[in-house]
Write a structure and sequence with these properties.
Elements: E1 11-23, E2 25-26, H1 31-47, H2 65-71, E3 91-96, E4 102-103, E5 108-116, H3 123-136, E6 138-142, E7 145-156, E8 162-164, H4 165-170, E9 179-180, E10 191-201, E11 203-205, E12 208-210, H5 215-233, H6 242-250, E13 254-261, E14 264-267, E15 272-275, E16 278-288, H7 290-302, E17 315-317
Antiparallel strand pairs: 1-5, 1-7, 1-9, 2-4, 3-5, 6-7, 7-8, 10-16, 10-17, 11-12, 13-16, 14-15
Helix pairs in contact: 1-2, 1-3, 5-6, 5-7
Length: about 325
């Protein structure tokens, strides 16, 4: 079954950062957006080499770490998304527990990070930016102070190898190697597939928020995301059997236990609060065929729906 998706030969890095709280952290309703923004702010400081620091007029925006990961502009010669200002971002950040608003000293939390294609070369810069942001302060102000934390360990999500952060900073070579996206799909027979949403899913179907998605809705979004990521960051136009796969998904039924959950993030760029509410819960796909299962397995790394770069649309499949 893997051979069917060889076109999705997109390099992937997946790692989990364990951090310990040193001073109370007060999150907003979705900490992934906070950590994502903090990494971006410091990554730009670490990687920008021009004085004007204006990405909109910078000739390096398609190659510098910050430009690739956070700006992700559409190339002038692109055959896709030419009417859009940005492509899907090649990084995902999730924070667990995401629903706990306050963390106190000695509590631990995890920040999972997924990098794709050209963005995988920026791993250490992203970790250093994260380390700096946690030490300088994250979350809301309380008594004139922000929360503080320190990175303890880094875990390779794919093979469960763990390394101390202090050791990794001085001896990184070979700890986390890239894996091709299609290799993350396992050989499997027809079976029920239980999707458990670990963070809210904000799915847009036909221009409207979809709070009761069908299997086809999920698959259409996932196929679009995977193929765009491969095109923009893997340098390959994935030639998949889209119509056949969508037709297959249309025939499937699911038993859904979903509920809407409210979440807000503040955008420093737009200087306003943005509603990122979505659905949470479980979706059991009955008698799911191997091809759909393989795509859903890859989707665990890529995420689905809106705002995946900040941690929405994170799920596991059983």
């Amino acid at each position: 079954m893997k051979e069917q998706f060889n076109a999705l030969d997109l390099p992937v890095l997946a790692f989990s950062v364990k951090a310990v709280v040193k001073q109370d952290i007060l999150w907003n309703s979705f900490p992934g957006s906070v950590v994502h923004g903090n990494i971006g702010f410091r990554l730009k400081k670490l990687s920008c080499v021009v004085k004007h620091q204006n990405c909109q007029k910078c000739f390096l925006v398609h190659s510098c770490p910050y430009g690739v990961v956070f700006e992700s502009p559409i190339p002038a010669d692109s055959k896709r998304m030419r009417l859009y200002p940005q492509s899907p971002h090649p990084m995902r950040i999730t924070v667990f527990p995401w629903e706990k608003q306050v963390l106190v000293p000695e509590e631990t939390f995890e920040i999972n990070c997924y990098l794709f294609g050209r963005a995988t070369t920026s791993l250490m810069l992203i970790l250093l930016a994260l380390d700096e942001s946690l030490r300088e302060g994250v979350g809301r102000m309380s008594a004139g102070k922000r929360g503080l934390a320190e990175i303890v360990t880094i875990k390779n999500i794919i093979n469960d190898d763990i390394k101390q952060w202090d050791d990794l900073k001085t001896n990184y070579a070979g700890f986390i190697d890239t894996t091709s996206l299609y290799m993350l799909a396992k050989e499997i027979r027809n079976t029920d597939a239980l999707i458990e949403l670990k963070t809210p899913l904000k799915l847009i179907t036909d221009g409207r928020v979809n709070n009761n998605p069908t299997v086809r809705d999920i698959l259409a979004n996932l196929l679009r995301r995977l193929s765009n990521m491969s095109y923009f960051f893997g340098g390959k136009d994935a030639d998949l059997e889209y119509e056949k796969l969508l037709e297959m998904a249309t025939s499937l039924t699911s038993e859904n236990e979903l509920r809407k959950i409210r979440a807000i993030r503040y955008s420093s760029r737009q200087e306003k609060a943005i509603d990122i509410s979505g659905i949470i819960g479980k979706m059991n796909i009955l008698d799911c065929p191997p091809a759909i299962l393989s795509l859903l397995q890859m989707g665990q790394f890529a995420g689905i729906g809106k705002n995946t770069s900040m941690g929405l649309g994170d799920y596991i499949i059983d």
